[in-house]
Design brief:
By secondary structure, the chain is mainly β. It contains 6 helices and 30 strands.
């Protein structure tokens, strides 16, 4: 049995070391088959030589990986030019930043790396080539003052103009840049940029397109031959710097005074008129409107009114108050009704609703009334103010019949309102305007003005 197990182990090991191996040399795969135990054996079987500067995915003394995949990157000559001098060495490294670091050259913002004359991303692997030529340019510090702001720019360009162009600060026609654009970048520079701003000056429906390096809106307007007169104003103001959006609006302003008349309402009062029947009205003294005059200052901007301010006002003609007469004379009249002939001294249009013990919106039933009488047909309710004036008064309501004011009801302020009482058995819903007749005998001093 032990001999069989040993034989099985040898068989499995042989199968493992007989597995196919792929050697990827400089990015090109080469399959290899055979019996070998180490990475070095696989490379010899594949005929691949690896020097001291070459890069292997595993040590030559290591066992062949289970996946059967090996990588070999051969070293190639690399020349790095910096400060006019070449540094040449062999390496399998293909990332420019690592190549520079291997010769103690550290990258800083703005530094530039060129490979075979073309700029490259120093963090991305380079394509494989038989030889690499790298050019390394140190960035110079540029302190740029523009529009009151200062920024630092680091650039490896050869001239100031190239540095500004690469940084997206391309000069425009009319810009003032100091020093000149052809100044070589062989050390730190102090740069001042005065931009010629593209401007659109709007004057009503007209517009002027221009460029200016002026420091204020007023100076730019003067350059464009636009003057502000009187109340005219500019947006932004004259003393403001040129706007970021490049738009200046000139508003032409004028003002004028106008006089405006308005009526002054008169007040009304009431006086009793014994020659009139109750609820009748007459004009004892007619009212007259007064006249008020106001002086207003009207402001126009670009021909359109924008404000109107009252500076003074006075009453040129005083109003005359109106006096209305109200009747106090009680006149008894008769009316034939389905319930017989009635005598009344007052007829008032009122809005009528109805209620019963269980139809009051109380959430419960109640036959109680403010007078103590039981709620049933023949009970009428007024608002509290009317109830106090007419408590116990006898009424006639067409379609309902006779009633006595014996309860306080609801209503809407300003509306003459009557609630008609019922028992629950004979309840009829009301919601209409009717004429309510106040029956004789009339009281000695009936209220002449109804609230």
């Amino acid at each position: 049995m032990p001999a069989a197990l040993a034989l099985l182990g040898l068989l499995l090991a042989g199968l493992y070391f007989l597995q196919p191996v792929t050697v990827v040399v400089d990015g090109r795969p080469a399959p290899v088959r055979g019996i070998f135990f180490t990475v070095g054996g696989a490379l010899r079987q594949a005929g691949v030589a690896a020097g001291g500067q070459d890069r292997l995915s595993a040590s030559p003394a290591a066992l062949v990986p289970a996946g059967g995949l090996l990588f070999v990157e051969h070293a190639r000559p690399v020349s790095i030019w910096t400060d006019g001098l070449p540094l040449t060495f062999e390496t399998a490294e293909r990332i420019p930043a690592n190549l520079l670091a291997s010769v103690n050259l550290r990258l800083y913002p703005g530094d530039e790396v060129l490979v075979n004359g073309a700029p490259v991303d120093p963090l991305q692997p380079l394509p494989r080539a038989s030889r690499l030529y790298l050019q390394f340019r140190r960035a110079e510090a540029l302190r740029i003052r523009e529009g009151g702001n200062t920024r630092m720019l680091y650039s490896a360009a050869q001239t100031l103009g190239q540095a500004l162009w690469k940084a997206g600060l391309q000069p425009k026609p009319g810009d003032r840049i100091s020093p000149g654009l052809d100044t070589p970048l062989d050390g730190p520079l102090e740069v001042t940029i005065a931009r010629a701003r593209g401007l659109v000056i709007r004057l009503g429906e007209r517009q002027i397109i221009t460029h200016s390096t002026a420091s204020s809106v007023g100076a730019a307007l003067a350059e464009a031959g636009v003057s502000l007169q009187g109340l005219d104003y500019a947006t932004p103001p004259e003393d403001a710097p040129l706007p970021e959006n490049g738009e200046i609006r000139v508003t032409r302003v004028r003002e004028e005074l106008i006089f405006q008349q308005t009526t002054v309402p008169y007040r009304s009062s009431y006086a009793p008129d014994p020659n009139l029947e109750l609820d009748a009205r007459s004009v004892l003294t007619p009212g007259k409107y007064g006249v008020k005059v106001s002086r207003q200052r009207v402001r126009y901007e670009d021909g359109q009114e924008v404000s109107r301010q009252t500076e003074a006002e006075w009453v040129a003609t005083q109003p005359q108050d109106q006096v209305l007469g109200y009747g106090t004379q009680v006149v008894v009249k008769t009316l034939d009704t389905p319930d017989g002939t009635i005598e009344y001294y007052r007829a008032v249009p009122m809005y009528a609703t109805s209620y019963s013990p269980c139809q009051q919106g109380l959430g419960r039933c109640s036959r109680s009334t403010s007078s103590g009488a039981l709620l049933q047909k023949g009970i009428a309710a007024f608002t509290l103010q009317w109830y106090r004036m007419f408590k116990g008064a006898r009424l006639y309501i067409p379609g309902y019949g006779f009633a006595t004011v014996a309860d306080v009801g609801g209503g809407i302020p300003g509306t003459y309102w009557i609630d008609l009482g019922y028992s629950d058995e004979d309840y009829v819903s009301w919601a209409q305007t009717v004429t309510v007749y106040f029956l004789t005998p009339a009281p000695a001093n009936p209220p002449a003005l109804l609230p």
